[in-house]
């Protein structure tokens, strides 16, 4: 586990409403950086003011992050020196679903330290008829890569 300096406080704001895929990633990441965790589908107006590092972690729903995450970014983020990272889990891994959020953050002058994406079991729509796609994801390797990403990102932030 990463020993945080006194000056660094991290929070992961997440949404995971389909199969809990994103929650698995959130838990793996939070455990290695000792982050606070906020389920945005339960807490509509989270207070992010005391944090140096904020991770927005979401399943992908209709090509984009959960509405609650988008609202949270819209209402809470501005160029106050807070560092952000983005994480998505998605059924189809052929495009970078974090790009839209990166653009939103850039327009607000918020620094995005990096992004991570992996596949997650998807039974939405027609995929449900075949038992879903990306059935075993996130798997152990996805979780390990997620942890490596967040450690690298937060260490970068700490320096
Ligand atoms: C309503 C809905 C829409 C989805 N839209 C997409 C999509 O546009 N692209 C994609 O790759 N996956 C899509 N998925 C699959 C999810 O992004 C994927 O299963 C993700 O891991 C779900 O995370 P969760 O279990 O944490 O909610 C969708 C799933 C649902 C339920």
Automatic annotation (TrEMBL):
GO terms for molecular function: FMN binding; menaquinone-dependent protoporphyrinogen oxidase activity. Residues 12-108 form the Flavodoxin domain. GO terms for biological process: heme biosynthetic process. Pfam families: Flavodoxin_5. PANTHER family: PROTOPORPHYRINOGEN IX DEHYDROGENASE [MENAQUINONE], PROTOPORPHYRINOGEN IX DEHYDROGENASE [QUINONE]. This is Flavodoxin domain-containing protein. It comes from Methanosarcina acetivorans (strain ATCC 35395 / DSM 2834 / JCM 12185 / C2A).
